[in-house]
Q: What sequence folds into this?
């Protein structure tokens, strides 16, 4: 109970600080860069709901992200819908897509599930590429609507909206982790058959995890259309999103909701710095090497390393 | 109708080529259960090695493919050893992290190729590239015929190796029952390491075929994740004859869709078929389980 209060005070303080910075800092660049980091936090937290707690490695982050982007594009182009509607609709579509992916998990485990999620990404990407109304392979330009006060620029507003999504995603992940849902998911991760036999409703839990994870990923993708004022299939569905989010979650550690948050901040900041100073190729290289290093040497991620350190110290005392 | 006949003939040729690029995965993933998502990345890496040898020393691409085969074999041995020590031996959680590991390796290879060779498409030169055979109205590119012949030979040789030689039978024995092999006094890890080496070595010639059939670019491995896994899963994990049949089905399906609906749908065909097979018949056409 007490920890819940602390968590919510922290979350509100975070949002207030974000809101204040958008009022004080006039330069747009920090928000432009910060937005990407916040976006990756949402994606990584959402990924680990299915990938971390339940142990289903989803390579389809880019599918969900891209569907979020294109839901927003479709609504803007067809109806001129406001940002809130775009995000809500993207979340709904994401939940449906998550349900579809969840139905795949009924028959597939391990590598088969992972490969199926890549396949899904490419199939959806190709369909969007062939959808003329959405601009096809060449992409589509979007016009930002006027900004709503109290924000001075659209990017600042998107930054704040993405911060709201971060709080939402973390709150959901934290709730799942501390409730019977999280325990059930961990049980099925360790041994699906044993979990089923001891009365864990594995099927419903997996579907639930897929739906929540999918809805959050799509919601995180929706503002990206307005952020870039442009969308094209090969960058919206780029597999780089999948590998980045996978790396962030695994490097942070998936046993606690803080893991993906730490991983996303760490890698997100590094990526922003590398992209500015060196090149985006080196960026992906660093990401890949860190992913492989952590998976080989520190399988529990930074959270695991941290726990080991604390435990080691406690043993030393005793 | 003529167009469709053309598509089928080209599809069969293309299919045999797909069998050659998938057969290594059929061993490493199909028989050894290694979640080898980096297989297509290894393949593209081999293609670039062939390109380098062809471009710099003017060596025929097929000869270049044979030249790099021993190196790839050693590379495969080392890769399996690393995978085994870090994942299979520790047991718990191996599947999740093994997949992430190979996915990471694939991306590293992709970026290293970009840094070394740039993002442009690369192709090789040889006397048989650019010519075509004509049968009446039908025109078949000679490069596809070469790929077809070499690919069929490669696939049949590997199938024979697995069924006729001592080591090949040992590999299939490990795939069937590792514990029994251990009880017979053999070391399953060494057999699997050898098998993974063979599976990687085959990529030398397969990579040469890849760059003979069409120009390659560093991110080509993403398309081949769909093609190779589609073939291997449809074949039924580890079945060599199944690999050939599944690859031909994929090749024909691709060329027919290409003819009827246009090239923009091409990338999705293998992935859609893969999804379909996984959903409907996960054990494949000639499944071992």
A:
């Amino acid at each position: 109970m007490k920890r819940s209060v602390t968590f919510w005070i922290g979350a509100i303080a975070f949002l207030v600080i974000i809101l204040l910075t958008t009022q004080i800092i006039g330069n747009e660049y920090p928000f432009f860069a910060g937005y990407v980091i916040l976006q990756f936090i949402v994606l990584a937290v959402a990924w680990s709901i299915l990938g971390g707690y339940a142990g289903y490695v989803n390579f389809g982050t880019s599918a969900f992200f891209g569907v979020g982007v294109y839901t927003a594009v479709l609504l803007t182009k067809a109806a001129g819908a406001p940002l809130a509607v775009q995000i809500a609709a993207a979340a709904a579509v994401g939940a449906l897509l998550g349900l579809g992916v969840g139905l795949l998990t009924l028959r597939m485990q391990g590598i088969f599930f992972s490969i199926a999620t890549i396949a899904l990404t490419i199939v959806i990407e190709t369909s969007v590429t062939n959808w003329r109304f959405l601009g096809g392979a060449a992409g589509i330009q979007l016009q930002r609507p006027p900004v709503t006060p109290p924000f001075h620029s659209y990017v600042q507003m998107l930054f704040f909206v993405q911060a709201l999504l971060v709080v939402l995603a973390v709150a959901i992940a934290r709730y799942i982790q501390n409730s019977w849902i999280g325990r059930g998911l961990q049980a099925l991760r360790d041994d699906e058959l044993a979990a089923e036999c001891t009365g864990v409703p594995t099927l419903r839990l997996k579907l639930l995890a897929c739906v929540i994870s999918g809805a959050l990923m799509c919601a995180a993708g929706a503002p990206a259309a307005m952020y870039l004022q442009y969308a094209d299939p090969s960058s919206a569905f780029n597999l780089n999103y999948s590998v980045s989010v996978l790396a962030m979650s695994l490097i942070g550690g998936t046993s606690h909701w803080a893991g993906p948050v730490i991983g996303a901040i760490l890698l997100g900041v590094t990526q922003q710095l590398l992209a500015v100073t060196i090149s985006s190729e080196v960026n992906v290289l660093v990401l890949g090497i860190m992913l492989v290093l952590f998976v080989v040497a520190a399988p529990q991620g930074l959270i695991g390393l941290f726990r080991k350190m604390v435990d080691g110290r406690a043993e030393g005392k005793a | 109708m003529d167009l469709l006949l053309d598509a089928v003939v080209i599809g069969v040729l293309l299919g045999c080529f797909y069998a050659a690029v998938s057969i290594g995965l059929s061993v490493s993933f199909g028989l050894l259960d290694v979640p080898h998502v980096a297989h297509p990345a290894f393949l593209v890496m081999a293609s670039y090695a062939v390109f380098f040898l062809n471009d710099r020393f003017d060596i025929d691409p097929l000869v270049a493919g044979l030249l790099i085969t021993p190196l790839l074999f050693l590379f495969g041995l080392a890769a399996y050893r690393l995978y085994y020590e870090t994942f299979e031996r520790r047991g718990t959680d191996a599947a999740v992290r093994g997949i992430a590991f190979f996915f990471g390796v694939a991306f590293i290879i992709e970026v290293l190729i970009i840094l070394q060779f740039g993002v442009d498409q690369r192709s090789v030169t040889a006397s048989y590239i650019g010519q075509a055979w004509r049968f009446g109205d039908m025109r078949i590119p000679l490069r596809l015929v070469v790929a077809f012949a070499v690919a069929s030979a490669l696939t049949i040789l590997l199938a024979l190796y697995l069924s006729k030689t001592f080591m090949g039978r040992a590999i299939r024995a490990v795939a069937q029952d590792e514990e029994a092999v251990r009880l017979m006094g053999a070391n399953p890890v060494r057999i699997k390491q050898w098998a993974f080496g063979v599976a990687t070595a085959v990529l030398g010639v397969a990579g040469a075929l890849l760059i003979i059939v069409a120009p390659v670019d560093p991110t080509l491995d993403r398309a081949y994740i769909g093609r190779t896994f589609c073939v291997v899963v449809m074949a039924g994990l580890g079945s060599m004859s199944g690999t050939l049949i599944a690859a031909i089905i994929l090749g024909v399906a691709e060329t027919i869709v290409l003819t009827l609906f246009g090239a923009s749908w091409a990338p999705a065909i293998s992935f859609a078929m893969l999804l379909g097979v996984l959903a409907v018949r996960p054990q494949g056409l000639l499944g071992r389980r």
About this structure: The radius of gyration of chain B is 19 Å. Residues 20-220 of chain B form one domain. Chain B has a mean pLDDT of 86.
